[in-house]
Amino acid sequence: MRSRQRPLVAAAAALAVVTAPAACSNDDEGSASAGAVTITVMGQPAATNTAALELFQQQVEEFEAANPGIDIVGSDVPWDAKTFAARLAGGNAPTVIRVPLTEPPSLIERGQVADIAAEASELESFDELNPRVMEFLVRDDAVYGIPEKSYAFGLVYNRALFEQAGLDPDDPPATWDEVRAYAKQISDATGKTGFGEISTNNSGGWHLTGYTYTNGGTMIEQGGDGAWSASFDAEPARQVLEWWKQLRWEDDSLGDNVLGKQEDLLAEFTAGNVGMWISAPPDLYPNYVAAGGDPAVYGAAAMPQGGADATLAGATVLMVDAKASAEERAAAVKWIEFRALRPNYDPEVATEYAQASAEDGLPVGVPVLPIFSEERYATIQEAIAQYVNVPVENFASYVESLDRFTYVPEPTVASQEIYAALDPLVQSVLTDPDADIDALLADAEARVNTILEQAQG
Amino acid sequence: MTSAPTHVPAAAREAPGSAPVRRRAPGPRRASSQRRRSAASGLVFLLPALVLFGYFAWWPIGRSVVLAFQQTNLVDAPQWVGWQNFEQLFADPLLPTAALNTLWFAALSLLIGLPIPLAVAVVMSELRRGGALARVLAYLPVVIPPVVSVLLWKTFFNPGEQGVVNAALGVVGLGPYPWLQSPDLAMPSLVIVATWSGAGTAVLIYLAALTGVSTELYDAAELDGASVWRRVWHVTLPQLRGVILVLLLLQIIGALQVFTEPYVMTDGGPANATVTVLLMIYRYAFLFGNYGVATALSVLLAAGLVVVSAVYLRLTRAWSTS
């Protein structure tokens, strides 16, 4: 009998192995107390950032106490398109998704995020959200996200290298011609990279877009029939590429390493090897400080201009999984209000958070593009003034520009595909001294038009 | 195998109608029945592996083939789009570039990656002392996680004079070279990294195979006055041809699926010089969220690899030891 049963036992064991994960997941789903809604929220600080994590956990406890029917499960896994796709397919994507400024257009386009207009419009603070920021998240009356913070492109620079090169750190360059001159001076005087540039992982296309806006150009435009087509094979983008070529091959102020992404350049900048570069200064600052950068050396200036007084704007956005149920959606929006909106809206809460953050050594008072009205922003800044620990005077030029510039959103159709198609164009100019800019632009425009045709069906 | 019949499930042994046949069965039929029972028993033993493979390997493969003809956002039900994904793929001007780059990488990998481990293994097999240390040193790069070794090499290939590789070449008056920053040098740079990372495994396999080569053959060759080179050419290589052919096929398949090196080191740049087929699949799926086109390209790559393998096995059948 024993030998007869052995195969059956083996088969049963195999089945047990195969079905175990499914059984586990069922258990997980059933762990929430009856009637309660459990939502997974991104944005929990990493375990290494103990102070911020403690603050987050405290907020979760407060929120759950105030909303007995909702359980919050924090996730410290940052946004990652690879895992998101797999988790979405498996039905266990986070309910509240926290994404960087480049993602919302694609997520909205693919229908992977929920319309939360009904839930969001009930929030007291919703109507006061800055329309210039919300325009990126609203399509045909549908609301796809709420900004946690927003920012515009600006010039980030190393004040110490400015001084070493004999430049006044309180007088940063305002035009691309000035940036070129400053970069050459820094490079010649210090041997460091005068102006840093990035060109992989779609950052080349992203930067080309941002720079082209400052010259009055556009990347895509909508025809009378509503169809989008590429529009960058024109003078504004050509000027940007010529400018890069001059810095790289005439001035030698762009450094040797031009094939990196934002994280690479941030590391070099933090190490004091780069004079200037373009990024979102308020968004970068916490990472710069966390990586050991000296706050006093960090300078943030207005986006250099080529005549348009415009800059690319974006936001860190909180969105909701398209597969979330109505209850989960409602709970998610409540959490978003609690965690992201109140500290920017309610002076009392803002003061509480600022005090806790300052005590834990976290940056307080980084000047940002307000997600609410200017008046609200001023009220909040006044409330937290005593806890501000960021050298805000080093952001003066950047802050001053926020009112002055027009904010231009990223391409609303196929933004990632467009950036990917532009990366090789930027890389060609930066790695080949004989690159034919006109031919490259024409080729890239043809590629982007193909992408747009496919994206629009 | 004598106990095999006892493994037949009770249900099969006691099936109605089968017992009388079994009782009356003459010798050959009885043997055939035993074989059937043995096969059924084997199948039961195989079942766990079949279930696991089926669930985690064949089912996803089957799903990918279906997905290649669908459009999905992973939220709504997939839509059947026929050959549209393939049409979109073939309209992508990057596809020929990626295919050629992948073939270029494979060719360079074989050019460098085939002779080096073989030569190292032959030299190591001749070592009278320090063989164990040499084996450890040869295998060490394989133990280092690929992403770590690739990032290390990214630092080594720093285009400035302070880069490790450039500094070393500078000693003999060469360089500095732009390495990963140059469309011409980027791909050979990736091949160097891939070879460095993977050669250790091939060295160990060659070393194991070398122990199987009869020393009498070398003794006979030596008596005939054969030089070291002639002994390697006429004894070692013919004796290893079976292993060499298998490893060559595995290297071809591996090289055509190159991903980590271009993904981590160059992201396909500069100017698409290192975009490979797998990198395109990755971008379509995870950057553009176009899972249909991504799987269409995966299916094409898989089909291509099957054809390459079949042709290779056919061509090398005569040379194989088996």
From TrEMBL, chain B:
<keyword id="KW-1133">Transmembrane helix</keyword>
<dbReference type="InterPro" id="IPR000515">
    <property type="entry name" value="MetI-like"/>
</dbReference>
<dbReference type="GO" id="GO:0005886">
    <property type="term" value="C:plasma membrane"/>
</dbReference>
<feature type="domain" description="ABC transmembrane type-1">
    <location>
        <begin position="99"/>
        <end position="312"/>
    </location>
</feature>
<dbReference type="InterPro" id="IPR035906">
    <property type="entry name" value="MetI-like_sf"/>
</dbReference>
<feature type="transmembrane region" description="Helical">
    <location>
        <begin position="240"/>
        <end position="259"/>
    </location>
</feature>
<protein>
    <submittedName>
        <fullName>ABC transporter permease</fullName>
    </submittedName>
</protein>
<comment type="similarity">
    <text>Belongs to the binding-protein-dependent transport system permease family.</text>
</comment>
<feature type="transmembrane region" description="Helical">
    <location>
        <begin position="39"/>
        <end position="58"/>
    </location>
</feature>
<feature type="transmembrane region" description="Helical">
    <location>
        <begin position="293"/>
        <end position="313"/>
    </location>
</feature>
<feature type="region of interest" description="Disordered">
    <location>
        <begin position="1"/>
        <end position="34"/>
    </location>
</feature>
<feature type="transmembrane region" description="Helical">
    <location>
        <begin position="187"/>
        <end position="209"/>
    </location>
</feature>
<feature type="transmembrane region" description="Helical">
    <location>
        <begin position="103"/>
        <end position="124"/>
    </location>
</feature>
<dbReference type="InterPro" id="IPR051393">
    <property type="entry name" value="ABC_transporter_permease"/>
</dbReference>
<keyword id="KW-0812">Transmembrane</keyword>
<keyword id="KW-1003">Cell membrane</keyword>
<feature type="compositionally biased region" description="Basic residues">
    <location>
        <begin position="21"/>
        <end position="34"/>
    </location>
</feature>
<keyword id="KW-0472">Membrane</keyword>
<dbReference type="GO" id="GO:0055085">
    <property type="term" value="P:transmembrane transport"/>
</dbReference>
<feature type="transmembrane region" description="Helical">
    <location>
        <begin position="136"/>
        <end position="157"/>
    </location>
</feature>
<keyword id="KW-0813">Transport</keyword>
<dbReference type="Pfam" id="PF00528">
    <property type="entry name" value="BPD_transp_1"/>
</dbReference>
